[in-house]
Write a structure and sequence with these properties.
The complex is a heterotrimer of chains A (205), B (476) and C (266). Chain A has helices at 2-14, 35-45, 58-61, 86-89, 123-131, 148-154, and strands at residues 49-54, 74-76, 101-105, 108-110, 115-118, 134-140, 144-145, 162-166, 171-172, 180-181, 188-195. Chain A is of the alpha/beta class and 205 residues long. Chain A has a single domain (32-195), classed as NagB/RpiA/CoA transferase-like (Rossmann fold). In chain A, the strands form 3 sheets. Chain A has a 5-stranded parallel β-sheet. Chain A has a 4-stranded mixed β-sheet with strand order 7-4-5-8. The termini of chain A are far apart. The relative contact order of chain A is 0.20. In chain B, the strands form 2 sheets. A 6-stranded parallel β-sheet of chain B has the order 1-10-7-4-2-3, sandwiched between helices. Chain B has a 4-stranded mixed β-sheet with strand order 8-5-6-9. The relative contact order of chain B is 0.12. Chain B folds into 2 domains: 38-294, NagB/RpiA/CoA transferase-like (Rossmann fold); 395-475, no CATH class. Chain B has 476 residues and is of the alpha/beta class. The longest helix of chain B has 23 residues, at 14-36. By secondary structure, chain C is α/β, with parallel strands linked by helices. Chain C has 13 helices and 8 strands. In chain C, the strands form 2 sheets. Chain C has a 4-stranded parallel β-sheet with strand order 2-1-3-4, sandwiched between helices. In chain C, helix 5 packs antiparallel against helix 6 (94-101). Chain C is globular and about 50 Å long. The termini of chain C are close together. The chains are: A alpha/beta (205), B alpha/beta (476), C alpha/beta (266). Chains in contact: A-B, B-C. Strand 8 of chain A pairs antiparallel with strand 9 (264-268) of chain B.
Chain lengths: 205, 476, 266
């Protein structure tokens, strides 16, 4: 189709409007006063949940969408909780449709909209994050950026085959503008912000 | 039947019109609340508009840069001059792999190209996976809004449709339950699909990446599992640098639905590695990008309308348009309805869409709300002039306006026209008058017809004042 | 300073009392205003219909009639917007640009001359102000609800706020179009009427008894709809309200002339 390519490029060149200079990068807006509260608001509005927990012990400290012990099929890129069930045994990614839970680590979160930047380690991780009933994303509290401007300063798309911002569970309002969580992807999404802190002892999960 | 007749039919159902109008106004208010929380909203609009203005001046360079980077990442890049070439490329990609079913996420470009009927005529089944798109697909009708395709439907109608097409219990109306039915039904397609097609919200020249945004995750489900990802992108969607995504993504979801950001904002660059994915099909993962002109370069050549190429398809102009809200997307009989559609479509087919720029009071709300500052109502006015001069307006209308306009230039003729119209109106039996002026009187009372014009009253007043001054002088 | 009054063709022919009210207000406030009798139509209906040639020709006539004046007061926001924004595009010459720049909408003119800093009499009623879309978004006379730019003054609102006893009501959609839109009112008559009826319902819900505007075109449409559909409103141009409010104070000894409100040329 190089004919088409040449034709299109020629058309574009001949239709070229007068040059307008590229604008300078705009200054990001002032930071919000309470980033944690702002994140919580955005997650809540997006239909997700927002929790803060101690880094070393967070699985014991958070509220899980269902009791962790009852979730048989788990795919996790963190050491705890462990991948189990179909998360371990699946040969093909579509088998992950039976996943109850997917746990992933986000690189950073964006305060102005509650989104987490995540680069899946593998195609499997991406499929798991889409097919699981419940998604939990863990992000370090020190890894917050104020707006998308700072986010794109951090990201290097030239080196990213696939990366996404995630905010809240899958949802739709296509039926009479009525919001429904869990359209095609996960029905729940939790953002867990981890920080220094003590472990709790012996909490049932 | 043009917009006038279809809109009249729509408005005749007052309850539905009110419901449709309020649903869309609600989305407009959500956008307002979202914009309230962004202190630099107007600066963002300016920045986005400036980025687009610059990009539109560099399209050949940006697309060759994009292509080179995308190819280096392992994507295959195709170019399509028009809708037919676009459709043929995609059909070819599917045929050569023996693929007979395609899952597709929302792409107004593919709607514009008529991809679905083209593929279906070649025995390829197309499953639209965006819930709203799936609904209108099953009803065999076009989307009525570019972001909320099924906004014109009530839950009962959707319940009936799902009972018929997805085997759900008749009488099911709850949106959450209906969505669950669709979730189960569409998951089967996602899990067995061998090819997924997405649109592209933004393409980035400097990296060869592109971004697709959804709330449902259907674009991701449709591309994570199958081995073939086809991405269709219009010539106007390119941005120079990854940093340009910040202002656009800050504007897009807020303008479209009032959300700070969509659930998924996915960045793609090249196909996923061959070693990953573990799909049942034997083929290696592949990414094919189809770059489409289909009239965009033509629009670029027109100073009056080229700014419309900045459009990011947010739909805010539809939500704010008082005419769109009360006539519905189907009244426009165009791929894209509403203000932006009425600017883009006449460029595609001036005869068919000559009426659209007149489906508008020029209120300017669209221009004020557009996140990329497209001067929409100015462009609609420019279209009216262009279409009139290009012979697309009715000759009778042109002659009548020409005649009245010419007479109005000569004060005595203007005064005579006014006086005689009023004189006739005052003398005519009111029923006959109302019939003669039906386009006004069908819905409105006529004003009381004055005996004298302002000019006459003004002269009388001055004659009176002069007379009084004279009398005063004489007496004094 | 020579000030001329431009009375739109439909006001001249259908609502001449509004022109008289405007004259009364201007004179009561100390302005000496001339009505050049050769004026006809500013050309707006032709421009919006796409008939640019006739629009330009009528624009030229407008320039011929008004070019000797220092200020032109237009009794319509949409005509003022058309003259200021469209005519210089259709006829980009110095004469046209000069006349266009000197043309202001009636309330805009008054506020620019400091009238809004005075109290403007009494008019006791609940008033819904209907903004003219063209005045609002093309001339910037007010802050459109879509915009997040710094607030701009709405001259009509400012003037009405200076009238004692006048209560401006809050609408749910403060600047939605009434649906007149020129030929749209008859060519897309069904949608036009639907839009107007929705405006009337909003005003009724807000408790307005009078609907005021700077544009008689909007008011003719709303008035016609109100009469035919059982809405009990008076429609009044802002000039009519001010004429009534200033007259009420004249009865009570308010000296409406010689106040020095008319400034010299700006």
């Amino acid at each position: 189709m190089s004919d088409a390519r040449e034709t299109i490029l020629a058309r574009l060149a001949s239709a070229r409007p007068p040059t307008a200079p590229a604008p300078a990068a705009m200054a990001p807006p002032p930071n919000v006063l309470d980033p944690i509260e702002t994140l919580r608001e955005h997650l809540t509005e997006a239909g997700g949940s927002f929790q803060i927990a101690a880094r070393g012990d967070w699985p014991n400290q958070i509220e899980w969408p269902e009791a962790l012990s009852t979730m048989e099929h788990v795919y996790s890129t963190l050491a705890d909780p462990e991948t189990r069930g179909v998360g371990r045994t699946a040969v093909f990614d579509h088998e992950l449709a039976r996943l109850d839970l997917c746990v992933i680590r986000g690189e950073f979160a964006v305060v102005e909209n509650g989104a987490v930047w995540h680069v899946p380690e593998s195609a499997r991780e991406r499929s798991a994050a889409l097919l699981a009933q419940h998604l939990v994303v863990v992000v370090e509290e020190s890894q917050l950026v104020p707006t998308l401007h700072q986010a794109y300063d951090r990201i290097d798309l030239a080196k990213t085959t696939f990366g996404w911002f995630l905010c809240g569970p899958s949802k739709t309002a296509d039926i009479e503008q009525s919001l429904v969580l869990g359209a095609h992807g996960p029905c729940t999404m939790s953002l867990v912000l981890t920080r220094d802190g003590p472990a709790l002892s012996g909490t049932a999960r | 039947m043009g917009h006038v007749d279809r809109a009249r039919a729509f408005v005749a159902d007052a309850d539905r019109t009110q419901w449709h109008d309020q649903a869309l106004w609600f989305v407009r208010t959500k956008r307002d609340r979202a914009a309230d929380r962004v202190p630099d909203w107007e600066a963002l609009r300016q920045q986005a508009a400036a980025i687009k203005r610059n990009a539109l001046g560099r399209l050949p360079e940006l697309w060759t840069e994009f292509e080179s980077n995308a190819v280096a990442a392992g994507a295959v890049v195709h170019w399509a001059r028009d809708a037919r070439e676009h459709n043929e490329i995609i059909a070819g990609l599917l045929h050569e792999r023996g693929i007979e079913r395609l899952v597709k996420s929302k792409s107004m470009l593919t709607e514009e190209c008529g991809l679905n009927p083209f593929l279906e005529a070649q025995a390829i089944e197309v499953i639209d996976t965006d819930l709203g798109e799936r609904i209108v697909q099953l009803r065999h009708e076009p989307p009525s809004h570019i972001v909320m395709p099924a906004i014109h439907l009530r839950r009962g109608e959707i319940g009936e449709l799902f009972a018929k097409e997805m085997g759900s219990p008749p009488g099911l109306e709850d949106p959450a339950e209906l969505t669950a039915v669709a979730r189960r039904n569409l998951r089967k397609h996602f899990l067995s699909a061998e090819a997924g097609l997405t649109g592209v919200n933004f393409a980035i020249a400097e990296t060869g990446s592109f971004v697709v945004v959804t709330n449902e995750g259907n674009a991701d489900l449709g591309t994570a599992l199958p081995n073939l990802h086809i991405a269709s992108v219009g010539l106007e969607k390119i941005l120079p640098r990854q940093g340009d995504l910040a202002p656009f993504l800050r504007l897009l979801a807020r303008s479209a639905t009032g959300q700070a950001i969509t659930t998924y904002t996915s960045h793609f660059r090249g196909p996923r590695p061959a070693s990953e994915g573990h799909s049942p099909t034997q083929a290696n993962p592949a990414l094919h990008i189809v770059i489409v002109d289909n009239g965009r370069s033509q629009l670029l050549a027109q100073p009056d309308f080229r700014e419309a190429l900045a459009c990011i398809r947010c739909g805010a102009c539809l939500n704010t348009c008082p005419v769109y809200r009360r006539s519905g997307g189907h009244s426009y009989e165009a791929t894209i309805p509403g203000p932006i559609g009425s600017v883009l479509e006449p460029s595609r087919d001036p005869t068919r869409h000559a009426e659209l720029p007149h489906a508008c009071t020029l209120c300017g709300s669209c221009t004020e709300i557009c996140p990329v500052q497209i001067p929409l109502h100015h462009q609609l006015l420019a279209w009216r002039g262009r279409l009139a001069e290009g012979g697309q307006h009715s000759r009778r209308r042109r002659w009548a306006l020409y005649l009245v306009g010419t007479l109005f230039m000569w004060p005595p003729a203007y005064r005579f026209l006014g006086w005689s119209a009023r004189a006739i109106a005052r003398v005519f039996p009111s029923r006959l008058l109302e019939a003669a002026l039906a386009p006004w009187t069908r819905g409105r009372a006529l004003p009381a017809i004055p005996k004298r014009s302002f000019r006459t009253l003004y002269r009388d007043r001055h004659r009176q004042a002069a007379r009084e001054a004279d009398n005063g002088g004489r007496e004094g | 300073m020579r000030i001329a009054l431009f009375v739109p063709c439909y006001v001249d022919q259908l609502k001449p009392e509004v022109g008289l009210a405007a004259l009364d207000v201007l004179e009561a406030l100390g302005f000496e205003v001339v009505y050049p009798e050769a004026q006809t139509c500013c050309g707006q209906p032709f421009i919006t219909a796409g008939e640019r040639d006739r629009g330009r020709a009528l624009g030229e006539h407008f320039v011929n009639v008004f070019e000797d004046f220092d200020e032109i007061v237009a009794l319509s926001g949409s005509c003022a917007a058309s003259i200021r924004r469209q005519l210089p595009l259709l006829a980009p010459n110095d004469r046209t640009k000069r006349v266009a720049a000197r043309t202001r909408e009636f309330c805009e003119f008054l506020v620019d001359h400091g009238v809004a800093s005075k109290s403007l009499g009494h008019f006791s009623d609940r008033v819904g102000l209907h903004p003219s879309c063209h005045a609002l978004r093309d001339l910037g006379l007010g802050t459109p609800s879509e915009s997040r730019a710094p607030a701009r003054i709405d001259p009509a609102r400012m003037l009405l706020s200076q009238v004692a006893g006048l209560e401006l009501v809050d609408l749910t959609r403060r600047d939605e179009c009434c649906g007149f839109g020129g030929l749209f009112a008859i060519e897309e008559e069904a949608v036009s009427c639907r839009m107007g009826l929705d405006r009337l319902a909003d005003h009724r819900g807000a408790g307005a008894r009078v609907i005021a505007s700077t544009d008689i075109s909007c008011l003719l449409h709303l008035e016609g709809l109100a009469k035919k559909n059982g809405f009990d409103f008076r429609t009044m141009h802002v000039a009519e309200i001010l004429a009534a409010s200033l007259a009420s104070d004249a009865e009570h000894g308010f000296a409406a002339t010689g106040d020095g409100l008319a400034d010299g040329p700006r």
